[in-house]
Design brief:
The structure holds two protein chains of two kinds. Chain A is mainly α. Helices cover 69% and strands 0% of the residues of chain A. Chain B is mostly helical. Helix content of chain B is 66%, strand content 0%. Chain B has 35 helices and no strands. Chain B has helices at residues 2-6, 11-22, 28-31, 37-50, 66-72, 97-120, 151-159, 163-175, 182-195, 202-213, 215-221, 225-235, 245-252, 258-270, 274-286, 293-306, 310-326, 333-343, 347-363, 370-381, 390-401, 414-425, 428-439, 449-466, 469-479, 488-501, 507-517, 523-535, 540-558, 571-583, 587-599, 606-618, 622-634, 640-650, 655-677. In chain B, helix 24 packs parallel to helix 26 (488-501) and helix 32 packs antiparallel against helix 33 (622-634). Classes of the chains: A mainly alpha, B mainly alpha. At the A-B interface, helix 11, helix 13, helix 14, helix 15 and helix 16 of A face helix 2, helix 5, helix 9, helix 17 and helix 19 of B.
Chain lengths: 385, 678
């Protein structure tokens, strides 16, 4: 039955987390559970036969058992188990599991629509789990002692001169402890869920000890005392809050560098092949094929295949001059006479130059300067004329 | 440019202006400060009087991509079309994932082939037609230009990444007694360490690229880190060999600076010589040098290979970090990503320490990249038991706020990892949030074709599982051919979702898609499809549509094409098809199916035979009914008696037919007795 419970845990996506966790423990814990199961199998069968409700009273159990013509062994175990409330508790738990499974089956039949309601169911299961927890604790605390013993204890307490109440409770506590240990030894194993849980916790701790001791404090805290943290594990919220990106300590290894140091670091020598290849690799992961024609054109533009937008007649002109520097060349004529044939000639020259797309601005200026030098050289000659 | 924007009418004005204001050249800079073209016009009239300063508008330079980017942003995805890269040729429009992969790879390899030709035979590409010259279309100069034995020549060969030539030249230089500068030797070491002392060939790089693409398909399906490990060692290709040229040159170097050590460490880690890298680091410490951040990053990635136990790994990583702090090396994003990557392989230790690492990053003002989150999610959600969704939710909070640029090669894995985690947690809300983050800004670019398929197919499976059928179908229509090609599992999920929501009438269109996707020969899908269609009785039209699907399926089984072998019938498939035909009233087709049972030695179920009889009755075909009884009898079925009586009762039989029916009985009796005797 338990293994089936675990199976649903997987199927329902961890909604039976409680059940699953119980079984995730070490092998020894599972063995004890197995032993317990063997012992109570006939009993639980009977219960399944006669009632599916999880509110089972002991009297009813006994009556059904006596009425039933089971083998002697079964009835014997029935009697012995009926006496121990812990056993009863286990049965109740077992029954609850049955019901859970039954519900689940129903739901499966009822189309798979419940998928949407998984969350609801999860909550439901969780509450069931916590109920379970509560019952464990209740029975633990409210374990009935023999009334005769209680009376005797109170009598002893009253005979003593000091605080009556305290003595009584001390005595009773001692008695309870006795009974617990005897119970345990009688059964030759620990059926107590609490024990199972705590044993699991201990096991976990030891396995963790192997690898993680000093540095793994945080996770150990969760496991150190299983009893205290168990209820927390059931509710995801509280568990989450312990592991979050927002809270927690830092490593405290590094200190933040000052900005100057960072800048100093940045001024290193030319990139090595490592840097180049790393940049290529990183760029490659975001290099997706273009999704439409425009993106393809963007890619081509980047590669240099396509004319650059906006298309004008300046493509391929490398000197960073603007158009007016190409066209308006009068400013370069300052060194020439203001009028006369030379001026006239030079105006024609710049007119021609301004229409020439093949020369760079620098070349044009050089051209004009050549004339300037030329006329300078021939100045005397010209003046003679 | 400015002139053009002023319009043709204002042209003379501008000329005038420029003549005037260009003259006092010194002031021109000042003019450019403000004013617009309209203000210009006014000032022209006043200028004679007031001599106001005229300002020429500065030409506005456009980003060369601005126009295209604006245009591109207006184009949306067409949900019915395949990816843009396939649109050159309608014939080569992929129908399924395999085809799409094949086509995109072949397109890329065609490009690579062209590049190879240009590189290999540059002498045939010496004509430059274009004006201005388009340099990217011309062959690169890959042959060394400097002859002779000199350091310059060595430098050039290193620059051209000629591993063997460089080593040879270096040896020649050393033999000739010419000292090679430390810088050049270091760059030679860089080259050798990067390529692991093997020739760098373009082909190899391409192979590597394809390799890089390939694993995603597998990795998505099996999340075993072991596999990745194997791949990691294979992918590096060349292994670090004992005493290779890098080591030899390193040994004979007269002086070594930290860079020489660091590049050796990086090379050794890259090519899988992790223990050697560690020893090299020890040597570096002994020489009282300081390592650089890249070397530390490499060492941190090597940690899982140096130590076996989780705690030891973490301790070693911490040792490296402490050394960094001691040597005043400032960690970068990649340091922490490497650290988290190592923690992925540290089990529980990783889980508890990873958050401290994140806090450390925060304290140092290092913004996490997607790879950081990817490692974090892997640490928490790749385990056996499910971790609560707190961490992933916070991660998605952070991711949703930002648009990412690639910073780490592992960045690309984030979205698939996160979607896998959402699937494992069965949390559709998280998945929606993740999808929103993915669509933000340029984040979609992190998903290449294969990752895209993995991402969407996971998302779709989750949708099928958790969402209402209307929503599922909407998503399906939206993404099916244009974003990804569904996997068989997706189709199965969809069918199950349809079944759950009782929307079986959609099945024929799903079948159409299945045919397109090339899943029409998959037994598991066919079986599921047929059993869903034949489970319940539906209204007339739906039954007719179902019968059409059944016909298709029948055709698949009987296909005798050249390239494909016909699919084997299974008993149940045959029964379903027969059932569907009978429900649609196609008696003849149904009977053909019934005959097939005999051929493949299967037995039809009672349900199938009953339905067939109903059909025969409806279409008033007593002959078929008698044939059925004959069939049942010849198969020796116990139901033949019942069928016979039904036939007698429900059909109006002619005398002859009655006689045949009688004969069947006796035949079967005799055959029965025969078999008894045997």
């Amino acid at each position: 039955m338990w293994s089936r419970v675990r199976g649903w845990g997987g199927a329902a996506g961890g909604c039976c987390r409680f059940a699953a966790r119980l079984l995730v423990g070490p092998a020894s814990g599972r063995e004890t559970v197995g032993a317990a199961r063997q012992e109570r199998r006939p009993h639980s069968k009977i219960q399944k036969l006669f009632s599916t409700s999880n509110v089972l009273s002991t009297e009813k159990d006994e009556s059904t058992a006596s009425k039933d013509s089971t083998t002697e062994v079964a009835s014997k175990s029935q009697e012995s188990t009926a006496e121990t409330p812990k056993q009863k508790l286990l049965d109740i738990i077992g029954n609850m599991k049955v019901e859970v499974s039954y519900k689940k089956k129903l739901q499966q039949l009822k189309t798979r629509e419940i998928k949407k309601q998984t969350t609801n169911r999860l909550e439901g299961l969780d509450s069931e789990g916590s109920m379970l927890q509560k019952t464990t604790e209740d029975t633990q605390r409210g374990k009935p002692l023999n009334p005769e013993l209680v009376e005797a204890a109170s009598a002893v307490a009253s005979s003593l001169p000091r605080d009556k109440k305290q003595t009584e409770s001390e005595l009773l506590a001692q008695l309870r402890r006795h009974e617990e240990t005897t119970d345990k030894q009688k059964k030759g194993g620990t059926i107590n869920i609490r024990n199972v849980i705590s044993e699991m916790a201990i096991k976990r701790q030891s396995s963790a000890q192997r690898g993680v001791w000093i540095s793994n404090r945080i996770s150990l805290e969760l496991d150190e005392d299983g009893q205290r943290t168990k209820p927390e594990r059931l509710s995801p919220q509280s568990f989450d809050s312990r592991r979050s990106l927002k809270v927690g300590k830092r490593l405290n290894i590094f200190t933040k560098a000052s900005t100057e140091a960072e800048n100093a670091l940045k001024t290193v020598s030319s990139p090595t092949i490592w840097d180049l290849e790393f940049a290529k690799k990183v760029a490659a992961i975001a290099a997706q094929p273009p999704r439409n024609g425009f993106e393809e054109m963007i890619q081509w533009t980047k590669e240099g295949i396509l004319w650059e937008f906006p298309i004008d007649n300046e493509a391929g002109m490398e000197d960073d001059a603007e158009f007016h520097e190409h066209i308006f060349l009068e400013k370069h004529l300052e060194g020439f006479p203001k009028q006369g044939p030379i001026r006239h000639f030079m105006e024609l020259v710049i007119c021609g130059l301004s229409k020439n797309p093949y020369l760079s601005v620098k070349q044009k200026i050089e051209h004009i300067e050549w004339f300037q030098n030329y006329f300078e050289e021939k100045k005397e000659l010209l003046q003679e004329i | 440019m400015a002139a053009r924007r002023l319009g043709s009418s204002s042209w003379p004005q501008v000329v005038l202006l420029s003549r005037r204001c260009c003259l006092p050249g010194g002031k021109r800079e000042h003019y450019r400060c403000s004013s617009s073209s309209t203000a210009l016009g006014k000032t022209v009239e006043n200028s004679e009087v007031t001599h106001e300063e005229i300002v020429l508008p500065r030409r506005k330079t456009w980003n060369k991509l601005a126009v295209l980017q604006t245009l591109a942003s207006t184009v949306n995805r067409d949900p019915t079309a395949a990816h843009y890269m396939f649109q050159d040729d309608p014939f080569l429009m992929p129908r399924n994932a395999a085809n799409s992969r094949l086509f995109s790879l072949s397109k890329e390899s065609g490009r690579n082939a062209a590049k190879y030709i240009i590189k290999q035979f540059p002498q045939y590409f010496d004509k430059t037609f274009a004006e201005p010259n388009i340099s990217c279309l011309m062959p690169e100069i890959l042959t060394p230009q400097i002859e002779g034995v000199s350091e310059e020549a060595l430098k050039e060969r290193i620059h051209l990444r000629r591993v063997k030539d460089s080593v040879d030249l270096f040896d020649q230089l050393v033999q000739a007694g010419t000292p090679v500068s430390l810088e050049t030797t270091n760059s030679l070491l860089d080259l050798l360490c990067f390529y692991g002392d093997e020739e760098s060939t373009p082909e190899k790089e391409q192979e590597e690229k394809e390799d890089l693409e390939e694993p995603e398909v597998n990795a998505s399906e099996q999340k075993a880190p072991k596999r990745q490990f194997q791949r990691g060692s294979q992918l590096s290709g060349s292994r670090w060999r004992e005493n290779n040229n890098a080591e030899r040159i390193f040994k004979i170097m007269p002086e070594r600076n930290p860079h020489s050590y660091c590049t050796m460490i990086r090379g050794m880690v890259k090519h899988g010589a992790f223990a050697k890298a560690y020893d090299m680091y020890m040597d570096l410490l002994n020489e009282r040098h300081k390592a650089d951040v890249h070397a530390f990053n490499a060492l941190i990635t090597a940690v899982p290979y140096l130590k076996d136990r989780f705690l030891e790994r973490w301790e070693l990583a911490k040792v490296f970090l402490n050394h960094m702090a001691q040597q005043e090396v400032q960690p970068n994003l990649l340091t922490f990503n490497a650290l988290l990557k190592t923690l992925r392989r540290c089990g529980g230790v990783g889980r508890s320490m990873s958050l401290s690492v994140i806090k450390e990053m925060e304290a140092l003002d290092i913004e996490p990249s997607l790879a950081t989150y990817d490692h974090l999610l892997s640490i928490f959600y790749r385990g056996v038991d499910l971790y609560p969704s707190g961490i992933i939710s916070e991660v998605l909070d952070d991711v949703g706020k930002r648009s990412f640029t690639p910073q780490d090669p592992d960045d690309a894995n984030f979205f698939t990892t996160a979607m896998q985690a959402c699937c494992d947690l069965k949390d559709i809300k998280l998945a929606y949030r993740l999808n929103k983050a993915m669509e933000k800004g340029d984040n979609w670019k992190f998903l290449d074709v294969d990752r895209l398929n993995a991402y969407w197919s996971k998302f779709f499976s989750l949708l099928c599982m958790m969402e209402q059928i209307d929503v599922v179908l909407k998503w399906y229509k939206e993404m099916s051919p244009s974003l990804f090609y569904p996997t068989p599992k997706n189709i199965l999920d969809l069918l199950q979702a349809l079944d759950t929501a009782n929307h079986l009438e959609v099945i024929p269109s799903v079948w159409e898609d299945m045919k397109q996707l090339g899943f029409n020969r998959r037994h598991d899908l066919l079986e599921e499809l047929l059993s869903l269609m034949s489970r319940d009785q539906h209204p007339e039209e739906i039954q007719l549509a179902f019968a059409k699907c059944a016909e298709d399926i029948k055709a698949v089984h009987e296909q005798s094409g050249r390239e494909q072998v016909a699919l084997e019938w299974t008993g149940s498939a045959l029964g379903h098809v027969a059932l569907l035909f009978s429900r649609a009233g196609r008696t003849q087709d149904a009977w053909n199916m019934m005959e097939c049972f005999q051929q493949i030695n299967r037995i039809p179920t009672d349900r199938v035979m009953d339905e067939f009889l109903n059909c025969a009755k409806q279409t008033n075909c007593p002959d078929e009914a008698i044939k059925l009884v004959k069939l049942a009898a010849s198969l020796g079925l116990p139901s033949s008696q019942r069928l016979k009586s039904r036939t007698e009762k429900e059909f109006e039989l002619s005398e002859k037919q009655k006689k045949t029916l009688e004969n069947i009985q006796s035949d079967s009796d005799s055959s029965d007795s025969d078999s008894d005797r045997d």
